[in-house]
Specification:
The complex is a heterodimer of chains A (428) and B (251).
Chain A lengths: L4 H12 L10 H14 L15 H4 L24 E6 L2 E2 L12 E5 H4 L13 H5 L7 H9 L4 E5 L7 E6 L6 E10 L4 E7 L5 E10 L4 E9 L5 E10 L4 E9 L3 E10 L5 E11 L3 E10 L5 E11 L3 E10 L6 E11 L5 E10 L4 E10 L3 H9 L4 H17 L5 H17 L3
Parallel strand pairs in A: 1-5, 4-6, 5-7, 6-8, 7-9, 8-10, 9-11, 10-12, 11-13, 12-14, 13-15, 14-16, 15-17, 16-18, 17-19
Antiparallel strand pairs in A: 1-2, 3-4
Chain B lengths: L1 E10 L5 E10 L4 E5 L6 H9 L4 E10 L2 E2 L5 H6 L2 E4 L6 E5 H15 L7 H14 L4 H5 L1 E2 L5 H15 L3 E5 L7 H14 L5 E5 L3 H6 L4 E6 L2 E6 L2 H9 L2 H7 L1
Parallel strand pairs in B: 3-10, 3-11, 6-9, 9-10
Antiparallel strand pairs in B: 1-2, 1-4, 4-5, 7-8, 11-12
Helix pairs in contact in B: 4-6, 6-7
Classes of the chains: A alpha/beta (428), B alpha/beta (251).
The structure holds adenosine-5'-diphosphate (ADP) and magnesium ion (MG).
Chain lengths: 428, 251
């Protein structure tokens, strides 16, 4: 099918602005990805999948400058945890701020370093999960990333790894335009926790492909925080084996545009996938969670919990789909997306979808939009709690259900504490 | 302590007057009771005094220790020493009871320029006061009033009062929905707080609460006004004869 002329032109312009790394094992995957982008074309505002979020600023050849936000009054969110720290500044690996890439139970390397080899364990995954995730809905920005990302982290966990890997992204230049591509492989019975935080760049395109083998466990907690003008599009593509566990939670505050896509495929029986998000948006803030979960095995559980607090014209989007294939009996699928609108200017747009071809399944979904509970607010005020503190307390209570999805309660507490601090800072 | 003069209030949304000239003075150290038929405006009076949205004061005044409270925000009234035990305590999912109590205590202290209570000190005090009200650790941990029985909610109101140590306490039908044992617990909690410096306004339907919390003065409210004031014997009279005689007498 030929692309529309505008789409063709816009895609060509963007491609012309990028350079593809050469050689090594990723070469074929990159070349194939480029072909996918050329045939799909970059997202256009008329695309159904981009109905609620305008993609132009994510696809344009030039980055829209974004002033760096000074967050030096707070330590990076996961700084207190004992972790393997890896730092990227505007998408560029920073050796000085990073630990040595060595940890027991892990094979960990930079994509840029590993790519010169002819063979690599990541070769089976790089671009493969992304390709699988292009069907039935196309995700051209992910293919663009596979083709052009120069760097990223490749992590292979071979055992239960207690110490998390902590990726910190620092935004330093007003015009930075960064792409990173991470590949994670959790081997049979192994366990890994990955943390991500920071605003990364003025514009950030990130792809993470995750393969969790049978009985493996992958936990992911990320905080996209406190940088007002940045834009980000991120994709997680995950494939889950038998009795494996995948849990991902994202906290977002600020950012003019965030589109977080998550594409999960449950391919082994009795796998468990939880994906959750809490966001607080104020003013020029557009936050889009787009999730696609495919049940393709028996007895799997998937759970999506998304909560958004919006004020001063902030916009929240949720597109979430559960697809249950014919043989995926005993599927347990749950999806909830809720927004708390603190004023009439803010908006929440939700498109929950279920597509079920098996007969023995339990799937439920719900989406709500509401204002703050005035009775509860008065109750708090009547006890002496000032209106703004009372609103924060109710806001945190609203978000709590999503934060509870974080398995490690210590990390959950850190997330709650940071949320509370962010809310308090907004007061004049 | 609390001086209400000619208080008129109507609903903000509809043109309906509910309080039609309430006059009432509660002295420090005294317990006043308000009785009256359903719909006479008792809860409205408590809401107007504590500053709930939706009511408009059209005339009159209310002073707490000589300070006009009607222009204050609800949280300022609370910090000034006013407390309302709600007829229907509100459930707040996601906010732990303990967090709620501590936030309330420290917000008030902060507003008054006092030092905040440390976590350790707070814990000690709250455990002690909860114990006398038979509130267990589980109730302190759970979200505010969520899943509490009627009696538990009312005891939780009294615990808040005990923690906040207000100067002027208004109790709106704190006895309704309680069995005799629960009512005794609540009454004991209130009596423990009675002292020289504190005033109480106890709104109730029934004499039975007043057997346990002995009032100094009893008012009868009907159709938005105090229509009769007397001693404790007035409550007994209502108990025996209902409101009909009093209403007829005034009309
Ligand atoms: N928010 C409201 N909306 C409509 N009517 C109200 C509202 N609040 C009070 N009223 C009316 O005002 C009158 C007094 O109510 P209330 O103060 O609750 O009486 P009481 O507590 O003495 O039973 C009743 O007729 C009640 O229906
Ligand atoms: Mg009432």
């Amino acid at each position: 099918m030929a692309l529309a002329k505008v789409t063709q032109d816009e895609t060509d312009a963007r491609l012309a602005s990028l350079s593809m790394p050469e050689g090594g094992w990723p070469a074929i995957a990159r070349r194939d990805a480029l072909a996918r982008v050329q045939s799909m074309g970059l997202p256009h505002r008329r695309d159904e999948y981009w109905k609620y979020t305008r993609p132009e600023s994510l696809t344009s050849p030039d980055v829209i400058p974004a002033a760096v936000f000074d967050a030096s009054d707070e330590a990076p969110i996961f700084a207190t945890l004992d972790a393997l720290n890896i730092v990227f500044v505007d998408g560029v690996f920073d050796a000085d701020q990073s630990d040595d890439l060595a940890q027991t139970g892990l094979e960990i390397e930079r994509l840029e370093n590993a790519a010169s080899a002819d063979i690599h364990w990541a070769q089976d995954i790089y671009g493969t999960l992304e390709t699988a995730g292009q069907n039935p809905v196309k995700r051209p920005l992910a293919a663009l990333n596979t083709a052009f990302a120069h760097d990223g982290i490749l992590i292979r966990a071979t055992t239960i790894v207690e110490r998390p890997v902590n990726l910190t992204y620092i935004h330093k230049s007003d015009r930075s335009d960064a792409m990173l591509h991470h590949v994670i492989k959790v081997e049979q019975g192994a366990k890994l926790t990955l943390l991500e935080s920071g605003p990364a760049a003025s514009r950030f395109n990130k792809v993470m492909e995750v393969s969790v083998s049978d009985q493996g466990e992958f936990h992911h907690v990320r905080a996209q925080g406190r940088d007002h003008e940045r834009r980000a599009v991120t994709h997680i593509f995950a494939r889950l084996g038998e009795e494996s566990v995948f849990k991902s939670f994202t906290l977002t505050a600020n950012g003019v545009l965030t589109r977080n896509e998550c594409v999960l495929e449950l391919t082994g029986d009795n796998a468990v996938a939880h994906i959750a998000g809490a966001c607080v948006g104020d003013g020029e803030f557009h936050h889009d969670d787009t999730v696609f979960i495919t049940h393709d095995a028996v007895g799997c559980e998937s759970r999506q919990v998304f909560k958004k607090v919006l004020r001063n014209g902030a916009i929240g989007v949720f597109q979430g789909k559960i697809l249950v294939k014919p043989d995926a009996q005993k599927t347990d699928g749950y999806q909830i997306s809720q927004s708390l609108l603190l004023d009439d200017d803010s908006q929440f747009l939700a498109k929950p979808e279920l597509e079920i071809y098996a007969d023995d399944v339990a799937c439920s979904h719900g989406s709500t939009s509401g204002a703050i509970d005035e009775e509860a607010l008065f109750y708090l005020k009547s006890r002496g709690v000032p209106a703004s503190d009372a609103t924060d307390l109710l806001t945190l209570a609203f978000l709590a259900e999503a934060v509870q999805e974080v398995e490690d309660s210590n990390i959950g507490d850190i997330v709650t504490e940071r949320m509370s601090a962010w809310l308090a800072r907004r007061k004049r | 302590m609390l001086e209400i003069k000619n208080l008129h209030a109507s609903l903000e949304d509809e043109d309906k007057q509910i309080l039609k000239g309430v006059n009432l003075t509660v002295e420090a150290g005294k317990v006043h009771a308000i009785m009256g038929p359903n719909g006479s405006g008792k809860s409205t009076l408590s809401y107007v005094l504590s500053g709930k949205d939706g009511y408009e004061v059209t005339d009159g005044s209310a002073m707490l220790e000589g300070e006009d409270i009607l222009d204050m925000e609800p949280e300022e009234r609370a910090a000034a020493g006013l407390f309302l035990a709600f007829q229907y305590p509100v459930e707040i999912p996601g906010v732990g009871n303990m967090t709620f109590l501590r936030t309330a205590v420290n917000s008030q202290r902060k507003a008054r320029g006092e030092e905040e209570m440390s976590a350790a000190e707070f814990l000690k005090v709250v455990r002690e006061r909860a114990k006398t009200l038979k509130i267990d650790a589980d109730m302190l941990k759970r979200p505010v009033n969520v899943g509490f029985s009627g009696g538990e909610k009312k005891r939780n109101e009294i615990l808040q009062m005990a923690m906040l140590e207000p100067k002027m306490c208004i109790l709106d039908e704190t006895d309704s929905g309680l069995d005799v044992d629960a009512m005794k617990l609540v009454a004991e909690g209130v009596n423990a707080l009675r002292n020289e410096g504190r005033g109480f306004l106890v709104i109730t339907h029934y004499q039975r609460l007043l057997d346990h919390i002995k009032p100094d003065v009893v008012h009868i409210m009907a159709n938005g006004r105090i229509i009769k004031t007397g001693g404790p014997e007035l409550a007994l009279e209502v108990e025996q004869n209902g409101y009909a005689d009093i209403l007829a007498e005034v009309a």
